[in-house]
Structure formats: C-alpha cells, structure tokens
Amino acid sequence: MGVQILRRKSRGQALVEFALVSPLLLMITFVTVDFGRLVYAFTAISSAAREGARIVALDSQNQTDCLALRRMEQVGQGFPLTVDPNSLVGNTDPNNPSPPLQPSTPPPGKGYIYIWPAVATAAPPDQGTNCDGAQCGGSQVVKHVAVSIIYNFVPLTPLPSQITTGFQIKTVSVTEVEY
Question: N or C: which end of the chain has fewer CB within 10 A?
C-alpha cells in the first residue's frame, strides 16, 4: 500500500515538472524556427538584390528597370517585394540617403526594392507595355549601380510578435556598370 502512494506522488511530481518546463521548451522551439525563417529571408532577399544589381548593371538594361524589378520579385522566393515609391529618377544613394528622397519603410511582411540610380520616372513612357504598371523610364550615365532591398520581417513566435511590429532586413548590392 505504501508503494502505491509513492507511485502516485511520483507521477504527480512528474506532471507538475512537465507543466513547468514545457512552456520554456515550446518557446525555445518557436524562437529557433523564427531564427531559421529570419536567416532564410535574409538569404533570399540578398540573392534578389545581387541578381537585380547584376541585371541593372548590364548595358542593355540602362534604359529601363522593368526586367530587374521582375527578376528580383521572382528571386525573392515568395517574399512580397515591390518597387519602392521613392525609387525614381533623381533619387539618392541608398548608402548615403538625403531627404526627401530616401528608401521608404515597408509595411510588415513586405519588402521594397530601391534602385540607385533609378531610371524610373513619375510618368514613364513605357508604363503598361513593358512593366505591366511598374514605373520605368530613361537613365543617366553612371559607373556603379546599387540595389537596396528593405524587408520588414514579422516573427511568428507569440511574444516577440506582440512586442514589435517586425525586424528590418536591409541588404545593398553595388555593381560596376558593364558597357
């Protein structure tokens, strides 16, 4: 009879210990998954920026941003990337922005592509024909191009997602123009 009482106490103690430790283990698991998602997002965004800079640097692409924008949206691997509203002709270097034209902050879960020097204009002549609504236009002569992508990453873990609206992932790729 004394052995049965000890077994019941032992089972109850194990249940209480599990109840105390399980939230910590679940939180560690969720944070690990979010960290993996963050690394994957950074890798995909960086790859899209490199690919976009390579395309923009080609001499055949110095009159339009259309191909580069489409390619970066494809290479972004499911992360919603769109052209930054401030990425227009006359914009500023993303590494040294000056007001009023500087990279915009994207909403949570989205990313903005900022091309410098942008060949997009506010009223592009080829809008709707080559870009399906993206802003495009003519370019000036430059030696280097830069593509910056800012993505607002939102964690899935309950506690960090309630504390913050997201973490900004910013990557810049600079390439020499190939004439």
Answer: N
pLDDT per position as a tens digit, 42-52? 999 999 999 88
- HSE at residue 155, side-chain half, CA atoms within 13 A, is 21
What's at 179, amino acid-wise? Y
Distances from the Cα of 37 to the Cαs of 103, 153, 167, 170, in angstroms? Answer: 24, 9, 12, 15
Q: At what angle do helices 2-56 and 66-75 cross, to 10 degrees?
A: 160
Strands (E), 17-176: 81-83, 111-116, 144-153, 167-176
pLDDT of residue 4: 62
Q: Are 108 and 162 in contact (CB under 8 A)?
A: no
Strand, coil or helix: what is 133? coil
Regarding pTM above 0.85, the answer is: no
User: Please, is 120 exposed, middle or buried when counting C-beta atoms within 10 Å of its C-beta (0-12, 13-18, 19+)?
Assistant: buried
How far is the C-alpha of 55 from the C-alpha of 164, rounded, in Å?
35
Please name which of 43, 53, 81 lies closest in space to residue 144, comparing C-alpha atoms.
Answer: 53
